[in-house]
Amino acid sequence: MVTLRKMQLADLDIVRAWLSTPEVARWYLPGSTIDRELEDLRRSIAGEQPTEVLVVVEQNEPIGWCQWYLCGAYPDHAAALGAEPEDAGIDYAIGEPGRRQNNLGTAVVAALVAHVRKHHPSAGIIADPEATNIASRKVLEKNGFQLVDERPVASEPTPAPMAIYRLAPATEARR
């Protein structure tokens, strides 16, 4: 079972190690650096930016991290994605190399969606992995996300095309 807990400054060392692995760096570091990513996380932990960062835990061991934010807090990014201001954006990574199988990514996204919905039940949820990140795309689709578009996103640090997915608000999904 996967659980989420608030990220603490002490967690940044393990995130640094995860970002140093080729599997994570491939998706997180094009157009960025480990230090830039860690500084963004540090600022979120300190409450200096409106993103909640969480550690993914399985069997009492940290195995990855995720984050969410209201798109309205980042209007340029929301506009670039075509997101509604009340939508929530998510990002996620499984950092531990031995834990990237057995549908664990699906469980991570499901836990993150449940967490976001607990705080903002009427929010749609947006995710935009690189279009070539097939594993991430499958995880989103297994969680009910629908592909909206595939294109570069000006607010992303890479010019690579992104696969923009949206999960309808829980109120729309029940109709």
TrEMBL record:
Cited Pfam families: Acetyltransf_8
Stated name of the protein: N-acetyltransferase domain-containing protein
PROSITE patterns the record matches: GNAT
Domain N-acetyltransferase, residue spans: 2-167
Keywords: Antibiotic resistance
GO BP terms in the entry: response to antibiotic
Protein's UniProt keywords contain Iron: no
GO molecular-function terms, A-Z: N-acyltransferase activity
SUPFAM superfamilies, alphabetized: Acyl-CoA N-acyltransferases (Nat)
UniProt keyword annotation of Transport present: no
